[in-house]
Amino acid sequence: MAAPSLAISECAKPGETWHESLISTRALFLMGLEAGVSRSNLDSGDARFRLWLKSQFTGLVEERLLGVFGDGAGRFIAYKWLAFGGESMVQASARTIVQSAFDLKARSVILAHNHPSGNASASEDDIRSTINLQSLARPLGIEIRDHIILADANICSMADRGIL
């Protein structure tokens, strides 16, 4: 599931078409996974949610920040790419995140970003910026429910670690 479509296609010998079926099957699976996430309560610990998150970051070689927004009851509203970075850093302003929540009438946010390095551990900067964002967002009625870091098959959840 993690291989980019081009990498799958390159495995096929000339004249073979099996790779097209595999790519199509994967696309259908991911559409179903996204549909399931979009119709459920936001739960950053849910295995399906985490699998969907992994699918959003598959094959990326630069860091990106994704926001998954929910209403006051924690139901999914939308997701949005909030920032694009380099190989080892991504920065998003608190204003961008809070404004996106206001625009969507969201009351809860799960943030996720990737570490292309393969190390899913939260850096001191990741922790500090998330805590600062939480302290800015909370008085405005927006709850930062989790900040998840993905690296290869590994996940670090700040909520699971007790940071949020």
Automatic annotation (TrEMBL):
InterPro entries: MPN (IPR037518), RadC_JAB (IPR025657), UPF0758 (IPR001405), UPF0758_CS (IPR020891). Gene3D superfamilies: Cytidine Deaminase, domain 2. Keywords: Hydrolase, Metal-binding, Metalloprotease, Protease, Zinc. It holds the Pfam family RadC. Residues 37-164 form the MPN domain. GO terms for molecular function: metal ion binding; metallopeptidase activity. One of its GO terms (biological process) is proteolysis. This is MPN domain-containing protein. The lineage of its organism: Bacteria, Pseudomonadati, Pseudomonadota, Alphaproteobacteria, Sphingomonadales.
